[in-house]
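Q: Hi! First time asking for a complex rather than a single chain. Here are the components, and I think there are four in total. Is that enough to go on?
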Amino acid sequence: MAESNELLHGTLDTLILKTLAWGPRHGYAIARWIATVSDDALQIEEGSLYPALYRLERKGWIDAEWGLSESKRRVKLYRLTEDGEARLAVATAQWSRFTQAVDKVLLPG
Amino acid sequence: MAESNELLHGTLDTLILKTLAWGPRHGYAIARWIATVSDDALQIEEGSLYPALYRLERKGWIDAEWGLSESKRRVKLYRLTEDGEARLAVATAQWSRFTQAVDKVLLPG
DNA sequence: ACCGTATACCTAGATAATCAAGGTCTCGGG
DNA sequence: CCCGAGACCTTGATTATCTAGGTATACGGT
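A: Yes, that's all I need. Here is the structure of the assembled complex.
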């Protein structure tokens, strides 16, 4: 529907970290959570989701473990690490500073 | 200094359009304006700036004309077109919707 | 007269994130 | 028994930004 989402660049990782701050979840569920909480404004494509998860895992901000969902399907459960928690704080602050800066330019001053 | 600015992705064009909405300016001055208004939070590298200007020109949202600055240096003056004005309105609304969506995920709900 | 700094423009190549579009497998319902 | 949805994965294309170079001119200081 919408043209490809450039704005998402760089914020996806933060969205994932924040989602996991509520508790462990598997990949697919993370995407659904983000969609739900944002009232479907944010749609995370699987082609972005899984690479992002590997990225975060590689950096040590999340870790993964195979498990079972309630419906007994095999799922990869992701969990926020301590480093991930710290990173989330930094990234959230960055996001906040960035949006405030952009708003200074964009809003009728 | 700071790690490369991923968050800027997609917003740079909008920042430029908005800057030109205040009146014509040349490229270098656009970057300085954005830095000043954002209290130096936003630093636009020239390697991003000029390609962005060509992009916007190609899309018909701005147009350019060679002229002279007050200091008599040759400068390329950019001006917002009508299409650019319309685009600015759309992009600003998109930005607003996007940040609200992200905030729904990021802020303690 | 000279030199450094800031102004002002430009470009090639590297990096990196997202998306589109394919694929596999399993569970549950009709 | 089949089909849709859940759940995971990957390859390739696109695209934006940055790094790091380059040119040229004006101006201030010495």
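A: The beta strands of chain A are 25-26, 62-68, 74-80. Let me know if you'd like any chain examined more closely.
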